[in-house]
Amino acid sequence: MTLTELAFAMFWLVIIIFGSVFFAEWAEKHTQSYAMELFAHFGMPVLLWCGMLILYAALQQKGLLR
After folding, report:
1. Spatial separation of the C-alpha atoms in residues 16 and 22, rounded to whole Å
2. 34 pLDDT above the threshold of 90
3. In a designed cystine with 48, which of 1, 16, 34, 57 is the match (CB 3.0 to 4.6 A)?
């Protein structure tokens, strides 16, 4: 694993954790919906993870990541 790949992974780890937490807080405050809270805790990390994998594959094709 190169330093660039490590930085990419750490950046996305932070995005996935904090993005999910902030979305959960927003959903709890603004929607009062249990389903949205469940999505925030389980669905949002999955969506962010899939986005990270798609971006990683695109950057690999362009040669920016190994």
Report:
1. 10
2. no
3. 16
